[in-house]
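A reminder before we start the practical. When you read a complex entry, don't treat the lines as separate problems. The point of joint prediction is that each chain is placed relative to the others, so the output describes one connected object in space. Small molecules and nucleic acid strands, if listed, are placed in the same frame. In the example below there are two entries. Take a minute to note the order of the lines before looking further.
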Amino acid sequence: MSDPGVEPSLLNGIATTRSIRRYRPDPVPTEDLNTILFAATRAPQGSNRQGFRFVVLRDGPRALEARRLIGEGARSVWADKRVTDAYDRGSGAADDSPKARMARTMQHFVDHVHEAPVIVLACLHCHRAPSLALGGAVWPAVQNLLLGARALGYGGVITGWHGPREAEIRQVLGMPADPDRLAIAATIPLGRPVGGHGPVRRRPLAEVVYEDGWGEAAPWAVDPEGARFTAPGPPSGLRL
Amino acid sequence: MSDPGVEPSLLNGIATTRSIRRYRPDPVPTEDLNTILFAATRAPQGSNRQGFRFVVLRDGPRALEARRLIGEGARSVWADKRVTDAYDRGSGAADDSPKARMARTMQHFVDHVHEAPVIVLACLHCHRAPSLALGGAVWPAVQNLLLGARALGYGGVITGWHGPREAEIRQVLGMPADPDRLAIAATIPLGRPVGGHGPVRRRPLAEVVYEDGWGEAAPWAVDPEGARFTAPGPPSGLRL
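Here is the predicted structure of the whole assembly.
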C-alpha cells in the first residue's frame, strides 16, 4: 500500500489505481475536488469539442435525491446479477471462495454506495449518435478523474448504476432528458479507501498485446516482476 | 516543457499530456514499449472481462502494409474535413491564423503518420453491441497508454484513421472481420515529440463542472493559476 500522503509518480500511480468500493466517511475538501476535476478535464477528446460535463453530488438537496436513486439502481442491478451469474451457487456456496468474497464486497458496495463522500456523473454532449468511437470523448476523462483521485489518496470505481433510474435522476438534477443528446457515461463514487491502493490484477501481457498481426505474441510484452494476474473466478463483469 | 528524461508526478503527467502529432524518427526501444503497454493494461474496464487487445505496428511486413492503409485513411479523412470545415476559407485564408496553423499541422500529420515510430491499434472484444457504455472497457486503457508514453517522454494522439480502410487493415493483420464482435476503437501513433509536452488548453472548469444540478456552477471549480484556455478557433473536432 502506498502512503496516501505522497503523490506517486505517473507510472506508479497508473499501476496502483485499482477500483475502490469501500470508502471512509471523511468528506472530500473542495480543494481536492478541484484538483481531481481539473485532472479529469485535461484528458484528450480525440476532437476539440470538449463535450464532457461532470455533475458532482455531495450533500445538496438534489444530490441527496439523486444519491437515493443511484443506490436503488445499484441494488437492483446487483440483485439481478447475483442471481444471473450464480454468485451463491457452485463455488460461491463456500463462504471463503473468491466468488463468495466478491459477492460480499458487492453487496456491501451497493448497500452503501449512496453514502460515498462524493459521487460524480460523467456526461457527454453527443454531437452524433452515441457509439463506441464517441466514447473517446469522455472515457479518457473518466480515467484521468480516477488517476487524479489516486494522486491525492482517494479511490473510486466506474459504475453504470444510474441506469435503472436514469430518467428520474435526470429529472431531479434538471438534466436534458434525451440520452442520445446528452449521455451519462458513468457514475463514479469517490472517497478515501478502506484498505489501500495497490497493484491491479490483469491477464498476462502476452495475452492482450500483439505485434504485426492479430494474435501474434510480441516477444517484448512480458510482465514485470511482481505483476499480479487475474485469478480464476466469476466469469463476467460486475457492471451494467 | 518538461525534461523528457525525468518521470513526472501523477498530477503533473496528467496535466502535461497533450496530443502530439509530430514525431522524431527515433525508434522506441522494446523495453519502453513494454512499459507503455503495461500501463495501458492497468486500466479498469468497468467490468472484469478484460476485452481490450493492442496490436503494435513497427516494421514487420504486415505492419508496413497496415501503416500504408492507415496513412491513406488519414489523408482521405483530412482532405474531406479540410473542405467541410472550411479550413482554407474565412480566417483560414490568413497564413498566420490559428485555423491556417492547425491546417498546416494536420496536413503534415496526415502526410507522415504512417512513418510514426510506432502505431498502436486499440481493440475491444465486444460481448454485446458496441456502445458508448461499452467504451468504458477500452478508452481508459487508451488514456493510460498515452500517459504511460508521456511518463517516458513519448507522445501520441487518438485518431480514427483506420476508418476508411478498416476492412483492408483487418484483412492484412488477420483480424476477425466483424467490427461488432471485435472493434478497433482507436489508432494511436507514438513517438518522441518534435517540440515538447506541455499544458493542454481546455475550457474553463466552471463551464464543464457542475454541482448538485445540471448547469449549476460549482464555486470551488476554479482553474489553477497558469491554466491555459481553449482559444477561439475551428469549431469542430479533428478526428473521425
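Discuss with your neighbour: The helical segments of chain B are 10-15, 30-41, 61-84, 98-112, 139-151, 166-173, 205-208. What might explain this?
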